[in-house]
Design a protein that fits this description.
Helix content: 10-25%
Strand order of the largest sheet: 1-2-8-4-5
InterPro entries: Plant_DnaJ_domain
Radius of gyration: 15 Å
Number of strands: 8
Number of helices: 3
Distance between the termini: 21 Å
Shape: globular
Structural class: alpha+beta
Largest sheet: 5 strands, mixed
Amino acid sequence: MFAAIFSKLGVPIKTTVSATVLEEALNGMVQICPLPLGQPLSGKVEKHCAHFYSVTITEEEARDGLGCRVQSSEKSKCKLLYFDQEDNGGLSLTLQEDSAKTWKVTFADSSCQGSRCCLL
């Protein structure tokens, strides 16, 4: 409740990722869709759920880095998560970026090198 109040006042407070999302990712029980570079994608992600995407890049593109951005025009909180592939086929969370509010949208963005991106 306090987090919701402070969030309404503009104080950024990190929230946790759903245990179900993390468990399904770790056990390799998620559907990962390919995401073409440079192509915007829109859709809705239900609360406590996630959409998983992967990108295929060249070694040169990996050296240059890759930027990912997720945003909500409805100003809903969102997260950008990075996962690495485990030997058992599952995914382990390596980085979490929480959204920030602007006057038009909320967004989370970051750059990664060789990681999978997940939108929450």
